[in-house]
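Structure first, sequence second, as always.
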């Protein structure tokens, strides 16, 4: 609920798009947070403007590099 509260506060105070970013196993949590905010708190007044997906290559010292999926969900408040 902390993430939902942050989105609600940002939507009520900010004028621009809201961006929710996640990577790896947190992607499903980010999608859930966006859907809860859209359906419970804004009831049709918040729309998904864009969804960007990608991959980051993470390399630690002494380990092989690995790919981690990323997502960015951009939200816009309807007028």
């Amino acid at each position: 609920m902390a993430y939902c509260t942050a989105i609600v506060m940002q939507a009520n105070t900010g004028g621009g798009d809201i961006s929710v970013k996640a990577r790896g196993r947190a992607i499903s949590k980010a999608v859930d947070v966006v859907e809860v905010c859209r359906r419970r708190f804004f009831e049709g007044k918040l729309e998904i403007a864009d969804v960007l997906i990608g991959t980051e290559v993470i390399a630690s010292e002494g380990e092989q590099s690995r790919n981690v999926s990323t997502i960015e969900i951009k939200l816009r408040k309807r007028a």
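Margin note: The chain has one domain: 2-77.
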